[in-house]
Amino acid sequence: MAKKKLSRKELLKGTDEFLTLSNRAAIFFRAHLRELKYLGIAIGVIVAGYLAVYGYMRHINKSGQEVYNMAYNTMTDNLEPDVTPEKLKKAEELFERVIDEYGMSKAARLALPQVGHVKFVEKKYDDAILFYDKFAAEVSGDKEYETLTSLALAGCYEAKGDLKKAIFILSPIVEAPDNLFRETAMLSLERVYRIDNQPEKANDILKKFVQEYKTSPFLPMARARL
Hints:
Elements: H1 8-31, H2 33-77, H3 85-101, H4 106-121, H5 125-138, H6 143-160, H7 163-174, H8 182-195, H9 199-212, H10 219-225
Helix pairs in contact: 2-3, 2-4, 3-4, 4-5, 5-6, 6-7, 7-8, 8-9, 9-10
C-alpha cells in the first residue's frame, strides 16, 4: 500500500504548531522572568549551602577521626607493662578533644565510652558513669550497644560500692534469654550478689549458668564457685 503523501498545508501546520508553542514558551518566560530569576538564585543558594555543609561535615569527620586514632593508639600503648600515667592522661585529653572540638563527627560518639573507660581506670567512677550515660543516650535503641554500656555502668557502680545499683542494671540483662551478653551478665550479677552478702541468689545464678551454658569457656570456673 502506497504511503500517503502529506500536503504542503499539513507540513506547514506541524511547523506552525511548533512555532506557536515556542512563542508561548518565550512569552511565558518573559512574563515571569523575575520569578524565574529568583528561583534560579534560590536553587543556587540551596546547592551552594548543601555543598558547604557537606564539605564542612567531611572535614569535621576526617579531623575528628584523626584525633580519635591518635587517642586510640595512645590507649593501646597503655596495654604495655611499662605504661605511664602520663600516657593514660594523654589518651584521655585526646578523646575529650574529639568530643569538644569535633562534636558533630562520627568519632565523637565513640570517644564517649573511651573517656569513660579511662576515667574508670583512674578510679574516677562518677566521671566514668557520666560519660557512659551520655553514650547510652546516643545509642538508645541499639540493643547490643545498650547492653555493653549497661555492663560498663554496672562495673562502675560495683567498683564504687553501689551494689544495689549494679544489681538493678544487671538483672534485666540476665532475665532476657535472647540477649547476646547474658552469659557475661550472669557472672557479673553472681559476683555482685556474693559481695552484697546474698550467697543464695549468687548460687542460683551459677546453677542456671551451669545448666544453660554447657559449652561456655567459663563453665569450670562457675562449677568451682558453686
